[in-house]
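Q: Convert this sequence to structure tokens.
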Amino acid sequence: MASDKKVLVTGAAGFIGFHLSKRLLAEGYAVTGLDNLNDYYDVNLKQARLELLLKEPNFSFVKANLADKPAIDDVFGGDFRYVVHLAAQAGVRYSLQHPYAYLESNLHGFLNILEGCRHHRPDHLIFASTSSVYGANTKQPFSVHDNVDHPLSLYAATKKANELMAHTYAALYQVPTTGLRFFTVYGPWGRPDMALFLFTRAILEGRPIDVYNFGRMKRDFTYVDDIVEGIVRLLPRIPQPDKNWNGQKPDPATSFSPYRLYNIGNNKPVELMHFIEVLEEKLGRKAEKNFLPIQSGDVPETYADVDDLMRDTGFRPSTSIEEGIGRFVDWYKSFYGTKK
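A:
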């Protein structure tokens, strides 16, 4: 396989990494997937995703921890054209109880990825950030051009740190880098710690669901295929220095270095109670609801400004929650059958 078709995807056994790897393989890329298959959530689900990928002749897998520098150095010997870094310790609430996991994966691990890119010079590094970086911001919709210096969780703080670290490597070493702030991703093969999965399992098992902030939440739910489409369109779009960048009025989304930030969100916040109503309809069952106060580290509303993404790629996420939830429910019933 020519090196111009070789891609490294970290977190390949994860939710987004799995879907992205499938898409890239379908488009003729050779994908090397890296994952540590940790037990943050059901390892069987990760293994099931991985088994599907391993059936593809152009997919190879490396089991390694991001914080293991020698292992990451070995992986980068693969001469990749593109690197898509999706592996991370995820979860806002988990970070309240397990802060050191975020230090190892999201800071130490990301530094190893940056060093690999510095020394092996792929054409483009794309890395996952999160809508959580907007933290205490209340100006809607959230824009990549706004300051985001008030995170509300350690998870968000580490992702903001990733953006700063990436910019440093773009500035010092001219590593072309794009950061993507994902907004509440959902869909088939999704993470069991996310609301849609938790709600579906509880409703089918006849258990109540926890509805935080007494249901007064809005989320820019974004279907996983839309996330993947955004990544694929940005992959060959190598960031260039912005000649109009001004240090007197610094724009966080662009730079004098080859660095860019984009939101990928559905650009249409959905009320949590409506989200639950759609799920009830797709399942054919009503949920028993346990209304609770908002949790520490959480925000009441997210809403993505995706004008930059639309301008630069011609793409705007648009999958409705009716379609997306329906696909998730179909997958869940097919995958778990009567077991869950």
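The CA atoms of residues 69 and 238 lie 26 Å apart.
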